[in-house]
Amino acid sequence: MSDLKYLLGFGNSIESEAVQGALPQGQNTPQRCPFDLYAEQLTGTAFTAPRHLNLRSWQYKLRPSVSGQTVYKKLEKGHFSNDFGAFTVDPTQLRWKEPAMVEEGQSVDFVQGISTMAGIGDPALKTGLAIYMYSCNKSMENKAFYSSDGDFLIVPQIGSLTLKTEMGRIHVGIQEIVVIPRGIKFSVCVEGPSRGYICEIFSGHLRLPELGPIGANGLANARDFLIPSAWFEDFEGNFTVVNKFSGELFEFTLNHSVFDTVAWHGTYYPFKYDLRNYNAMNTVTYDHPDPCIFTVLTCQSADPGTAVLDFVIFPPRWMVGEHTFRPPYYHRNTMTEFMGNIIGSYDAKSAGFTPGTASLHSCMTAHGPEASVFKKGSTIELNPVRYPNDHLQFMFETCFMLKLAPWALDRLDQNYLECWSGLDKLYVSGK
Questions:
Q1: Where along the chain is Fe cation bound (predicted)?
Q2: Which residue numbers belong to the known binding site?
Q3: Where are the domains positioned within the chain?
Q4: Binding residue numbers for Fe cation
Q5: Strands of 151-158's sheet, edge to edge?
Q6: I need a labelling partner for 107 at 20 to 30 A (CA). Which of 174, 209, 213, 421 fits?
Q7: Can 361 be counted among the known catalytic residues?
Q8: pLDDT tens digits, 61-91
Q9: Which fold has domain 280-416?
Q10: Catalytic residue among 205, 256, 265, 288
Q11: pLDDT tens digit string along 184-231?
């Protein structure tokens, strides 16, 4: 869509107006706002957060958000659950086949189509995260959703999404991502069957990782992130809002659309990113670099260098390492790794990890390339190889140990461990 603008830097103050002159000049809350709009502030951090971390935006609306609202009523959650105390602990290496799309004849919107895979923590304490899959085929008409619990990182795998948000409209396709911060209302419109992955973080917000010795350039560039331009609809009639609050779902109705922000400015907004713009760093000498070299966004914990969430991708790139086992090395990691496949195949798995599938390798659980990949990687002639443009996988990596939802346990690939059969001892004494 054309109604997007460049972010130019995380934490930068942005302003946008759908009607020229709708933004007040010189102060946030004049006695009367231009066009008799209502001023309303949305804050994503504590008022007293340090200036470089403080996130808030002012909206200038047709009506305050509370206008015409009914009481919140609790909803049935379906497969959308944060009841982590009832989830299952299992350190086994796990994989899931791609979930079925919405069955023909069913009508399921984005919120109704979310199912929990795994999670940990407590959204009420603003700690931990949850991982979901979504599958839907119906647009949200006169309906919006927002989470009081955390930021939503949405990764489409089948079907593009058009999101209406309080700040404007965003179209996100395959190989793109969109982040909707805590509290921002949005609707999802689809053009047909759609499926993808979601990670919701309960603490902090996603930011660009520090570059360290890489220097000023590389990985995801701030200038490639896009935010919506102000857009509004003046709709009066029945409108439904679903709220995720402390792991539960609630619903209330309004007599108008929530998308009635005529102008806004600030540092708190949704954004999208095209993963094809990622500038991958890689070895040009030897050894396989750690996967953190492919981090797009991060949410850091209080422990320096340790992430609540690192969003990592495995993008198209050249592999040129000499005297090197090029596939991912066998490893045990203090972090937990949830992987998904957007398109193509992954270089550590020759079969079974198809687009739409997922895997979970938990803290200190051993994993790595399957037997056939090890044999090929150990014997192949090491010419430069291009990891092709139609291959893209990602990883939600977290310092937390995740627990498994019932929906996920019912859909496990029971044959996953077989991919490592045949990794027999090759050592020959005295060789």
A1: 331, 337
A2: 331, 337, 346, 367
A3: 280-416
A4: 331, 337
A5: 4-6, 226-228, 271-274, 176-180, 151-158, 194-201, 127-136, 114-122, 403-404
A6: 174
A7: no
A8: 999 999 999 999 999 988 999 999 999 999 9
A9: Jelly Rolls (2.60.120)
A10: 288
A11: 999 999 999 999 999 999 999 999 999 999 999 999 999 999 999 999
